[in-house]
From TrEMBL:
The keyword Transmembrane helix does not apply. This is Oxidoreductase. SUPFAM superfamilies: NAD(P)-linked oxidoreductase. Keywords: Oxidoreductase. PANTHER family: AFLATOXIN B1 ALDEHYDE REDUCTASE (PTHR43625), ALDO-KETO REDUCTASE YAKC [NADP(+)] (PTHR43625:SF40). One of its GO terms (molecular function) is oxidoreductase activity. The keyword Oxidoreductase applies. InterPro entries: AKR (IPR020471), Aldo-Keto_reductase (IPR050791), NAD(P)_OxRdtase_dom_sf (IPR036812), NADP_OxRdtase_dom (IPR023210). GO terms for cellular component: cytoplasm. Residues 13-287 form the NADP-dependent oxidoreductase domain.
Length: 288
């Protein structure tokens, strides 16, 4: 698989989103082990989790950290920690009843980093991302906390998520080379992040499209909803999902999509997008 730059690292151009990895429902652990193995076999090296990811629709705060614990245990069982750049996030909290809230107070973000270090069992987080702006905390204050966290040495690289161009520029001005990435929504269904992609390209930051296939509810129906993607897919004999990811990669050399998958077939298919070349004509059609 071709690689792309994330700060001082090279990672596979397609990553793996872990948000839906859990053992609570219909996913036997072996399936998750097989999915991680398939990802690594295909050249995927960037794995994305968050402290707020967990199965706990009904478990509220109890869900906090479950996904981190699960992926750490899976990587250890497979003995593949050193082959993966495991990215996590802080700044979201789970509430009773399956809800999500934000907390970007300095105390919470500091504690979130410490808790992720403990759950992942590492001395330094490879990439720690601020999950989402908190309406109750001015972004400049968040940036100051991120700078303190970067300077603490507890995180090797800092990322933003759900940030607008102004916030990205402000963070870059303070964090400098510690800031390596921005993770925002981008897909055939959600194309309004182009300004953020442009800023990332200008500043040399990686741009990680989240829900790059349209999210859990829509990913499987991509071909039905976007006929141009289905037609280009037919011409290449591949899936419309693979075309969507190849189209995203073609937006800019800084783009590294992180499609979610809990089945090996999904990640193997998505990873092949890194080697799918679309013509200028096809790209123009998909842009349309
Ligand atoms: N920063 C944020 O605020 C934020 C918000 C949302 C998500 N995220 C990140 O983005 C990642 C991905 O987002 P997402 O899971 O919401 O949406 P997504 O990647 O757009 O869609 C995931 C769905 O696509 C299916 N899929 C994956 N590859 C496929 C393929 N090649 N062909 C057919 N179906 C395929 C998966 O199926 P199977 O599961 O059955 O394999 C899953 O149902 C998350 O895991 C998380 O890391 C971040």
């Amino acid at each position: 698989m071709q690689t792309r730059t994330l700060g001082d690292m090279q990672v596979g151009a397609i990553g793996l989103g872990l948000m839906t990895f859990d053992q609570s429902g219909s996913q036997p652990r072996q399936q998750l082990l097989d999915t991680v193995t398939a990802a690594l076999d295909a050249g995927v090296t960037l794995f994305d989790t968050a402290d707020a990811y967990g199965p706990g629709e009904e478990k509220g705060e109890g869900a906090q950290g479950e996904n981190e614990r699960l992926i750490a245990s899976i990587l250890d069982e497979l003995g593949v920690r050193d082959r993966v750049l495991l990215a996590t996030k802080g700044g979201h909290v789970r509430t009773e009843g399956g809800g999500w809230d934000t907390d970007s107070s300095a105390d919470h973000l500091r504690a979130a980093v410490d808790a992720s270090l403990g759950r992942l069992g590492v001395e330094q987080l490879a990439l720690w991302q601020h999950h989402r702006p908190d309406p109750d905390v001015p972004y400049d204050e968040v940036i100051a906390t991120l700078k303190e966290i970067a300077d603490s040495g507890k995180v090797a690289r800092v990322g933003l998520s759900n940030a607008n161009p102004e916030q990205i520029r402000a963070a870059h001005a303070v964090l400098g080379e510690s800031l390596v990435s921005v993770q925002n929504q981008f897909s055939p269904a959600f194309r309004s992040s182009r300004p953020e992609i442009d800023v990332c390209e200008e500043l040399g930051l990686a741009f990680l499209p989240w829900s790059p296939l349209g999210g859990l509810g829509d990913a499987k129906a991509l071909a039905d909803k976007y006929p141009a993607f289905a037609e280009v897919a037919d011409a290449h004999g591949v899936s419309a999902q693979q075309v969507a990811l190849a189209w995203e990669l073609a937006q800019s050399p800084v783009v590294i999509p992180i499609p979610g998958a809990k089945r090996p077939q999904s990640v193997t298919d998505s990873a092949a997008a890194a080697d799918l070349e679309l013509t200028a004509e096809e790209l123009a059609r998909l842009d349309g």
